[in-house]
Amino acid sequence: MQHGQRYLYAFALVFILGGMVLGGWLWFRSSNPQQPSVKATDSIGIASPHQDVAQSATPWTGGRLVVPSLNINAPIESVGLLADGSMAVPTQNQWDGVGWYKFGPVPGEQGNAVIDGHLDRPGGAAAVFWRLHELQKGDNVMVVTSQGKTLHFRVTNVQIYTPDLAPREQIFGATSGSFLNLITCAGQWIPSRQQTTERLVVYTVLV
């Protein structure tokens, strides 16, 4: 399967069949950041279209995601798939780290690299992407590789989507540029669906 098709299929499932279940409460803007948690969980639904995906994953380890304006300096963990076919979440630094989807491009390579992170922890404390919604166009996002190389990305857009209206190809699809897209959950927790009502996506481009 071509890379673009793989990303598109995976993203469709993350948004339609399971969503990004990264946090669980009524999500507020920074003007009211300490609202009590309604529900917290730590799983993400994203499925592999084929069993052979694991053999085609791009090798890449280490590195940190740095967002100066949000005081984020988070270890990046390569995340794959759970036994049920859903995307795994970071386990080495579950709440303070982020997960890079290893079946997509490495940050800095051609295409849309994707990194996700938790919004909150069980009980309501903020996790790594609690303030992600504060990013604005032009803000700086960096990836520091395990070799010490710093890749600079510039925020081009910040969007909140409902699952059925998310532009799947725009986030995961093939492209001629080098992009890094950051994803977390947003909106209200729906216990019956085990997901939140919205998805927050921060688009960045390599500069």
Q: List segments where confidence is low: pLDDT < 50 over at least 5 consecutive residues.
A: 11-55
The CATH architecture category equals Beta Barrel
Helix/strand order: HEEEEEEHEE
- Which strands sit side by side, in order, in the main sheet? 1-2-3-4-7-8-6-5
Describe the protein in words.
The chain is mainly beta and 207 residues long. The protein has a single domain (3-48, 60-206), classed as Sortase, Chain: A (Beta Barrel), CATH 2.40.260.10. It is 9% helix and 31% strand. It is built from two helices and eight strands, in the order αββββββαββ. Strands 1-2-3-4-7-8-6-5 form an eight-stranded mixed barrel. The longest helix has 14 residues, at 3-16. The two termini are 30 Å apart. The model is unreliable at 11-55 (pLDDT under 50).
Please describe the structure with a list of short key phrases separated by commas or semicolons.
207 residues, mainly beta, Sortase, Chain: A, 8-stranded mixed β-barrel, 2 helices, 8 strands, 9% helix, globular
Could you outline the blueprint of secondary structure elements for this entry?
Elements (H helix, E strand, L loop, with lengths): L2 H14 L47 E4 L4 E8 L18 E4 L9 E6 L23 E5 L5 E12 L6 H5 L5 E13 L4 E12 L1
Parallel strand pairs: 2-3, 4-7
Antiparallel strand pairs: 1-2, 1-5, 3-4, 5-6, 6-8, 7-8
Produce a short descriptive summary.
By secondary structure, the chain is mainly beta. 9% of the residues lie in helices and 31% in strands.
